[in-house]
Amino acid sequence: MSSDSDAPQDEGGEKTERMDRLRALLTKPIKIPESASADTEDADYAAAVAAAAPQGARTEMTAEGKTPKGAKAPVETPPAVKAAAEALDRLTEEEKDAVVEGAGSGKGRSRRTWADAYLAKPDKPLTPEEVRAELTVSLKEQGADLRELVAKRSAAQEKALQESLEAGLAEGIEAARATTVAELATRFDGRIDEQAASAEQAATAAREEAARLQERLDELTRTTGTLRGDLDAARSAADGARETADAATKKAATATTFAWVGIALAVVAAVVGVVV
Questions:
Q1: Which of 43, 107, 165, 207 is least enclosed by beta carbons within 10 angstroms?
Q2: Domain count of the chain?
Q3: Structural domain harbouring 99
Q4: What segments bear the compositional bias annotation Basic and acidic residues (predicted)?
């Protein structure tokens, strides 16, 4: 069972206000009836109030319902005073001391108050019915207070649990977000590194291929120069061979001409020889 310190702060304000109202009620002077206005001793009337039976108990009356001869009429306890007395019974010893100190703080007061009368009440043994009634009332009040405290404690625990869950959920979401961002950053960094490495490898391969092609081009250039020289030499040789062939052709034509001329001369000579 939780103590009063576990209750919300509003309960302390209500208790303070209740004690202020109780102190104001108990510090009011006892009102003396008009029939006894000639008597200046308030203690007698206060004693009559203090000796009054507790709430729920029966008051013994005479057969005719009148006050015995020679006895002072008892003062009727006001309902507000009864309620104040019941409230005072429910207070702790410290709270009662605080009420008494507040009630006795007035200076120069000549009249007794209801608090003085109640606190001056002599202790009397309680009957079983009174004990049972007081226990029943006390148990009911304690049960009500307990239910109220349990309800407040449950509400406070539910609120604290909800706030804790919300805080934990927010923290988890924030941690998950941070983890996700870190993972994405790491993944992107890895991809960037991989792409940079791939680009570097591709650039290296391209440079190697360009160097190889440049070497091939240089080789082809050299081969082309050699072939050009060979072609020029072959062209020169062809030109020389053509000139030689032309000269040989001319010589052959001349020889042929000479041969035909010789043949013709031989034929002429033969004809002349026949004729002759």
A1: 107
A2: 1
A3: 11-61+68-124
A4: 12-22
